[in-house]
Structure prediction request, 97 residues.
Amino acid sequence: MASEAPAGDPVCPLCLRPIPPGVPQSRHHLIPKLKGGKHGETVLVHHICHKTIHKTLREGELAREYNTVEALRAHPELARFWAWVARRPPGFTGRVR
Prediction:
């Protein structure tokens, strides 16, 4: 699901920044493992983007309402974060509030 940047690096589908080698990254299960998504679809995202998802939403919310990239990008609080972090370098690892 992640697209490719011109240099060939994957792109975070949430903040739309490239994910170059060596940048903290993780795979986000679109349906949480605890809610039946153990073998389901995952997306490669920046680690800070992944941490922010799980700080903002509970597992049940993720499973029921926010189980697509589009839904995650549309969540009001997360959308503000994606816009803010998009202006940071790909390796940015600031604290998650």
In short: The chain has a mean pLDDT of 92.
